[in-house]
Amino acid sequence: SYVLTQPPSVSVAPGQTAAITCGGNNIGSQSVHWYQQKPGQAPVMVVYDDYDRPSGIPERFSGSNSGNTATLTINRVEVGDEADYYCQIWDSSSDHPGVFGGGTKLTVL
Amino acid sequence: QVQLVQSGAEVKKPGASVKVSCKASGYTFTSFGLSWVRQAPGQGLEWMGYISTNDGSTKYAQNVRDRVTMTTDTFATTVYMELKSLRFDDTAVYYCARGYWYFDVWGRGTRVTVSS
């Protein structure tokens, strides 16, 4: 089944820009979705279909996807953005279509 | 508002079964399928499967396919996930989430502990 690879951790200072990557074979041909999960809470979708934002998600969150890498970018990072972030695709050609990346812990220094 | 309300925590012995419910409200139930995602302690998210609330068709993950059953009750706007022959490594928080392509609304999770 399809494999999504994320770095285990990313650190950034408040006010700076964080980029969280999600690697996969020709992932640019897939639609990628991103979720934020804070400790003890359910995940929350922050980006869907590569770059669209659900209502209520700040414009500071954006996504891109090309080639073998999708990226979630968080501009002007705030302390409250500290969380685990997961990428996800739906591989309709697979017998195991729902795929999550392993997650990235964003630490705001 | 759109909500998914899940049943309470469960403690089960190895070999037993557990059935978790997820009640949807705030939207037209049959317009969206529902998926189940679990998270073992300290681990990432794992997709378990999906059920269409229209016709009850399902798609299950390979690693639980022979042990999981997802059902839907349109009248009660509730979906259920039953996992049989529980093992210690089934200990996890089980989430229901709206959709299958992506998951835009999540329940708060149901903790299932498998312990002897």
Describe the structure.
The complex is a heterodimer of chains A (109) and B (116). Chain A is mostly beta strands and 109 residues long. Chain A is built from no helices and 9 strands. In chain A, the strands form 2 sheets. In chain A, strands 1, 3, 4, 7, 8 and 9 form a 6-stranded mixed beta sheet that branches. Chain A has a 3-stranded antiparallel beta sheet with strand order 2-6-5, with no helix packed on it. By secondary structure, chain B is an all-beta fold. The radius of gyration of chain B is 13 Å and the shape is globular. In chain B, strand 7 and strand 8 form a beta hairpin. The chains are: A mainly beta (109), B mainly beta (116). Chains A and B meet through strand 3, strand 7 and strand 8 of A and strand 5 of B.
Which key terms come to mind for this protein?
heterodimer, A: 109 residues, mainly beta, six-stranded mixed beta sheet, three-stranded antiparallel beta sheet, 43% strand, globular, B: 116 residues, four-stranded antiparallel beta sheet
Question: Helices and strands in order, then pairings?
Answer:
The complex is a heterodimer of chains A (109) and B (116).
Chain A: E1 9-12, E2 18-23, E3 33-37, E4 44-47, E5 61-66, E6 69-74, E7 83-90, E8 98-100, E9 104-108
Parallel strand pairs in A: 1-9
Antiparallel strand pairs in A: 2-6, 3-4, 3-7, 5-6, 7-8, 7-9
Chain B: E1 3-6, E2 10-12, E3 18-25, E4 34-39, E5 46-51, E6 58-60, E7 68-73, E8 78-83, E9 92-98, E10 110-114
Parallel strand pairs in B: 2-10
Antiparallel strand pairs in B: 1-3, 3-8, 4-5, 4-9, 5-6, 7-8, 9-10
